[in-house]
Amino acid sequence: MDVVDAVHRRISVRSFLPDAVSDDTLRALLADASFAPSGGNVQPWRIYVLNGDSMARFRAHLTTQPPVEAPEYEIYPKGLTEPYRTNRFTIGEQMYAKLGIPRDDKPARLQQFARNGDFFGAPAALFCYVDRQMGPPQWSDLGMFLQTFMLLATERGLSTCAQEYWSVRHGAVSSFVGAPEEEMLFCGVAIGYADPEAPVNTLRSERMPLGQWARFVE
Q1: What residues contact residue 206 under an 8 Å CB cut-off, 6+ apart?
Q2: Radius of gyration for the chain, computed over Cα atoms and rounded to the nearest angstrom
Q3: How confident is the model at residue 52, as a pLDDT?
Q4: CATH 3.40.109.10, domain 3-76+116-203, yes or no
Q5: Mean pLDDT throughout 134-155?
Q6: What confidence tens digit (pLDDT) does each residue in 59-109 have?
Q7: Mind spelling out the 3-state secondary structure of 163-199?
Q8: What is the pTM of this model?
Q9: Per-domain residue ranges for the chain?
């Protein structure tokens, strides 16, 4: 698989098979992903991996924790303007349509949202933290690390779903993984093999035409 194939094949999978992923595979992916660009070679990412027994214990741990808490950062800007607002709204509606959940069925939508807390059934996951002293440039490095990891996982035949959902459960996560106070949870990433029979996994987010967001300066 070349890079462009991996870019186009990578999607956010929201239904996984229970098939195990080996620790060795995860270690190799993380080691390769660490070569992502990093300004000044700061390498600000701090990663905690759940797999096998630790995943089972974490799921049990969550049942003893508050369902949600205030996030440590704003996931989306308040008063999101166009075209960003429509882009976000459209992908949400498309996802619920794939799931067969109508807009007025709020209990079903909440139930689907809660599946984030089970990593959509994925057997493995990672939590990505960043030191609180870091600023926007280092958060950009973190994003490049995550994209590199997800493309490498795609090359290996694995699927992923980056989940900012975990920002509203940062206390539960940190208490389990033992993250120090100076580290802030950015997101989780569900990792595993996509369920080929799940309609939600056929969803591909649309992209705006190049002319709407890129301009070749004359």
Answers
A1: 90, 91
A2: 18
A3: 96
A4: yes
A5: 98
A6: 999 999 999 999 999 999 999 999 999 999 999 999 999 999 999 999 999
A7: EHHHHHHHHHHHHHHCCCCCEEEEEEEEEECECCCCH
A8: 0.95
A9: 3-76+116-203
